[in-house]
Specification:
Pfam families: FCD. This protein is 74% helix and 5% strand. By secondary structure, the protein is mainly alpha-helical. A hairpin with a 2-residue loop joins β2 and β3 (44-46).
């Protein structure tokens, strides 16, 4: 996973992904258009560092949209869905215990997307993918530095799914997104002072 302010090169990404430069070049152009990457000069493309206002706006949007997904997912959760959520949380905990925080963040993202899948809301899932493209590097960088728990509210969401309590799932998702706010803001500010 890329990190805020990380320089991106076509060659480097092609090597990392094991592909040729043409699809990477096309992907970089799309990511520039979607503001997932920023071009500072013709030879300097980077992962942007979100400003605090941008982070807060995206967090507010995520609270509403992911809260809606969690609420709907809880209302219609099946035993297999709950098992998948539990497996993702277990994988997240294993990654945290092994000090593999970037991997833990990837599992965290998978948990959030699984709720949108469970809610059977493909348009919402598409929107969330775009939001996570913008927010993912920031979340990954913060948790890799801060080493904070990623799953405490996920257990609350799973419990709400087991009892089909949509409002409780929504409230737990809100807490999951809001809890790291101060730390993430401090992390953003560290780029300005550093």
């Amino acid at each position: 996973m890329l990190r805020p302010d990380q320089k991106v090169t076509i060659r480097g990404l092609a090597e990392m992904l094991g592909t040729s430069s043409t699809p990477v070049r096309d992907a970089i152009q799309r990511m520039l258009q979607d503001q997932v990457l920023e071009q500072r000069s013709p030879r300097d493309v980077r992962v942007p560092v979100l400003e605090v206002a941008q982070y807060l706006e995206i967090a507010r949007i995520r609270i509403e949209l992911e809260g809606m997904a969690a609420q709907q997912a809880a209302r219609q959760a099946k035993p297999g869905d709950i098992s998948r959520l539990r497996r993702i949380v277990a994988q997240t905990e294993e990654a945290m215990a092994a000090d593999r925080w970037i991997r833990a963040v990837e599992y965290n993202q998978r948990f959030h997307f699984e709720l949108a899948n469970m809610a059977d809301m493909p348009v919402l899932l598409s929107i969330l993918h775009r939001l996570w493209l913008r927010m993912g590097p920031l979340i990954a960088g913060y948790y890799d530095c801060a080493r904070k728990d990623l799953v405490s509210h996920h257990y609350e969401i799973i419990a709400a799914c087991e009892t089909r309590d949509g409002p409780a799932a929504r409230a737990a998702m809100r807490a999951d997104i809001e809890e790291p706010r101060k730390g993430i803001i401090a992390y953003i500010n560290s780029f300005e002072s550093g």
